[in-house]
């Protein structure tokens, strides 16, 4: 279990009560395409989560997370292309993105 829990909330989010010490709020607007519904709660998509933690974990952990998501079919070439400017080169290079015919 991580020492701190990170939760992304809209930039407009305001809380009057004190934030628990275990919780770190990230203020950022997330598009509907970056969120998945679970049983009563929402989480960011696997690729968005990988992008969000890229500065918080080692390259080894980031690589393991990406490989696991790719193996499970949770990350697509379109995902990698969409976030290519935010992903380390070693992640982008592991996903073969084939250009459409005629390009």
Structure description:
By secondary structure, this protein is an alpha+beta fold. The protein has a domain of 58 residues. A two-stranded parallel sheet has the order 1-2. Strands 3-4 form a two-stranded antiparallel ribbon. Strand 3 and strand 4 form a beta hairpin. The longest helix is centred in the middle third of the chain and has 13 residues. The protein is globular, with a radius of gyration of 16 Å.
List the quaternary state of the chains: single chain
Q: Write down the Rg.
A: 16 Å
Structural class determined from secondary elements: alpha+beta
How far apart are the termini?
46 Å
Order of helices and strands: EEEEHHHH
Report the helical percentage: 25-40%
Beta-strand share of residues: 15-25%
User: Segments where pLDDT lies below 50 for 5+ residues?
Assistant: none
Strand order of the largest sheet: 1-2
Topology (elements, then pairings):
Blueprint: E1 5-9, E2 23-27, E3 35-37, E4 42-44, H1 46-53, H2 59-71, H3 77-82, H4 89-92
Helix pairs in contact: 1-2
What is the compact description of this entry?
With 103 residues, the chain is an alpha+beta fold. The chain is 30% helix and 16% strand. It has a domain at 46-103.
Q: What descriptors fit this protein?
A:
single chain; 103 residues; alpha+beta; two-stranded parallel ribbon; two-stranded antiparallel ribbon; 4 helices; 4 strands; 16% strand
